[in-house]
Design brief:
Two copies of one chain form a homodimer. By secondary structure, the first copy, chain A, is an alpha/beta fold. In chain A, about 40% of the residues lie in helices and about 20% in strands. The first copy, chain A, has 18 helices and 13 strands. In chain A, the strands form two sheets. Chain A has an eight-stranded parallel beta barrel with strand order 5-6-7-8-9-11-12-13, surrounded by five helices. A five-stranded mixed sheet of chain A has the order 2-3-1-4-10. In chain A, strand 12, helix 14 and strand 13 (about 360) form a beta-alpha-beta unit. The model of chain A has no long low-confidence stretch (mean pLDDT about 95). Chains A and B meet through helix 2, helix 3, helix 8, helix 9 and helix 10 of A and helix 2, helix 3, helix 8, helix 9 and helix 10 of B.
Chain lengths: ~425, ~425
Amino acid sequence: MERVTATYYIETPYAPERAAEVLAGEQSSGTFVAVPGETQELKQRFAAKVESVEVLETVNEPAIPGALSKEGKYHRAIVKVSWSIENFGYNLPVMVSTLQGNLYEITQFTGLKLMDIELPASFGEKFNGPAFGIEGCRKLTGVQNRPLIGTIIKPSIGLTPLQTADMVKILAEAGIDFVKDDELLSSSANSSFDDRVNAVMKVINSHADRTGKKVMYAFNISGETDEMLQRYEKILKSGGTCAMVSINSVGLSGAKKVFDQRQLAIHAHRNGWGMLTRHPLLGIDFRAYQKIWRLAGVDQLHVNGIQNKFWESDDSVVNSIEACLKKMYDHKTVLPVVSSGQWGGQAFETYRRTKTVDLLYMAGGGIMAHPMGAAAGVVALQQAWKAAVDGLTLEEAAKQYKEFAAAIAKFGKK
Amino acid sequence: MERVTATYYIETPYAPERAAEVLAGEQSSGTFVAVPGETQELKQRFAAKVESVEVLETVNEPAIPGALSKEGKYHRAIVKVSWSIENFGYNLPVMVSTLQGNLYEITQFTGLKLMDIELPASFGEKFNGPAFGIEGCRKLTGVQNRPLIGTIIKPSIGLTPLQTADMVKILAEAGIDFVKDDELLSSSANSSFDDRVNAVMKVINSHADRTGKKVMYAFNISGETDEMLQRYEKILKSGGTCAMVSINSVGLSGAKKVFDQRQLAIHAHRNGWGMLTRHPLLGIDFRAYQKIWRLAGVDQLHVNGIQNKFWESDDSVVNSIEACLKKMYDHKTVLPVVSSGQWGGQAFETYRRTKTVDLLYMAGGGIMAHPMGAAAGVVALQQAWKAAVDGLTLEEAAKQYKEFAAAIAKFGKK
């Protein structure tokens, strides 16, 4: 019988082997006293199994509150635990409850983070994965051999639909591939969802009629389930190609219901992610997280960016990009969304470390605040990426491209 | 215009006032450079506002990774930030993205936890809250003036529907009020959801016909949205009164779609909660969490238990019970679910500290493994609670009640 294997980074005042057994017990047939009906055969079939325990360093202070060590020693380890898929079948929420449920409550751990999940072959058939993925998003935008260049409408919230549409017009004429709502805006007092779709799609459709290029706009449909489905339909009917969902706020079941329509590319915004991953010994690592959401069907997934304005390290960003680009079954591959403080200067390091152009590269102020205007902002980003792929340094690129040189002058390190 | 106010416990290497302004900017109209269209009037209307900053202690080590302090000083503070409801209206997922979104990414914080939310009056009308709450759950089970006594079918996973039904028969005859699936079981290879409902409800309906008492069984419907709705309907048609949902795994939008049916009591299981709250300076506190889920419509919500087997302190459990019992608008009040390692001995301390019997008191092994049998296990729990309310000590109760005395002998501290 196929099994799902989870890898955890743990810390415990006990022997790691013992703590791992507690985890496996709690998350399958465990209880605090034996009860009738708990036969050996049944345990064999449904019990979680500790597959391996790799002991790492010992520290003197616990990472998070839990049982105290009498000797003041807390042992770290990588443990692998597996479950038969007979326990939960192809039910993602129940799989999440099994791999990420009450185990975070166990006092025997002073640290516990889900690092990765190995999923069995049959999941590749039972779940369809992304409906569009990299390949589909390239087709929808007509962009090949370079990253999709995107931006977020700023200010995040406050513009009227017509103001938003005016910005989209400027951006479309500037040659942008992708534009999105901020996650703070879905339907505000002065920008109802439908009015915004009407105003923005009028601009996008008219630009497409004239030029043949349809800008992908990710409208933030996040909300209650029926509301999201109505908004999804509204985008579709208006000729839009993409819907944005704040996946952590909406949650797995509501999001998947929307994704299962499979007619719009899904831009998955991971806001709230810091809460789930920022502590090194609590929560979930991006490697595990992105697998769950790829099964659910996201097409584009945020990964932060190199030299971002947030807390995340470049190493972590690179790992996230690589995780997204790794093939999963015969599913389409998810498009990593690079954002946060990006203006093009980071293209060099991003390309040097990932060797890919399969990215949606988002710049906010980097485009709209470009000293030569938004069109030059978009051009500068394309120049930066071309230069990075051509093996130029930032300085060489500045000499060659005047729009990019102007971007450096404004956004580069002072 | 009404505002939503969030209280955060923060840590920062900067002046707390400055860090709070960064948070407010990031979560409303902020971007890294000024852009056209960002007028003062617009800022005024949609900008988040720092309402207060109460500076607390300074520490020498950051709680979580973030910006480094040159002086090695990290300042803690309680900050309140408010948003106009014009920003998100009555959209819970977007409110969550605003209050708990990218702010966890901000490098200026080395700790950030959402402690509480003050919601405006109009939320009380726009959201219906629990369909049943304490009052409705008491009516459905016919239990007044004492806690509802409940248990979880153990082993968590592995029993066939008939084995589960046999246990329910023993428990019903023992006088139990409430029984639930474990969160690990929804539909397993040897216990399909429908078969389990059929087998269990046959027992419960037949017991109700004979005795007039209908045991409330919380079937775990957690799954995809349509699947949950089908399972909900199945319970309803079979004469059941309650559905269980793993709220963190299912997520807000899918869960609310189910809750909005308002025909079954909703048993909200918070597995995964430890990940969101266990670190003192990351995530969300139960006070804030329970408000969001009450708006969504949960009737019963897990709070752990006094002297539990998990990491949570008794103080935290008491705070959670009090949070649930606090009136919210004219909504029905949510029933706190006390569980984890409970066997009746904790009734005394639970009552002493909370002075309430408005609880669903869950014991697992404490009932099924009672030395005189399950019926005596249920009786022992009722005795413990009667004794606690009557002001007896555990020792006095042991002298008066033989079933409870036997429970102490088996489960009390050795």
